[in-house]
Amino acid sequence: MPQSGGEAGPEEPASFEDAMERLEQVVRELESGELSLERSIVRFQEGMMLAKWCRDQLDQAEQRIEVVLQQEGGGWESRPFEPRPGEDE
Question: Pfam families from the xrefs (predicted)?
């Protein structure tokens, strides 16, 4: 994830959990009010990129989920997961 301000950008997170942990750290740093304006902007950009990466991971996971439903005849049906209206936001 490239960044401005002369700082090297972080590598792609190793896992969703790592990305969430880093995102929480970025939020704490921003909320502390101790960063300069330039560093705050850099952290904000990093946070936005992490949030997008996490959302993309969740979207991919959602596409892989299959719901298995028992049919009336006793058999099983497998179909892609479809969130109820209003749950995908």
Answer: Exonuc_VII_S
Hey, what's the torsion of the CAs at 52, 57, 63, 65, to 10 degrees? -140
Q: Strand (E) positions, 1-89? A: 66-70, 76-80
Residue-wise pLDDT tens digits, 20-70: 999 999 999 999 999 999 999 999 999 999 999 999 999 888 777 766 565
Give the number of other Cβ atoms within 10 Å of residue 42's Cβ.
19
* 26 closest CA partner among 2, 9, 50, 56: 50
Return the higher-pLDDT residue of 78 and 66. 78
Catalogue all structural domains in the chain, each as residue range(s) with its CATH number: 16-80 (1.10.287)
29: three-class secondary structure by DSSP: helix
Q: Phi and psi dihedrals of 23, rounded to 5?
A: -60, -40
Contact 3, 46 (CB under 8 A): yes
3-state secondary structure of 81: coil
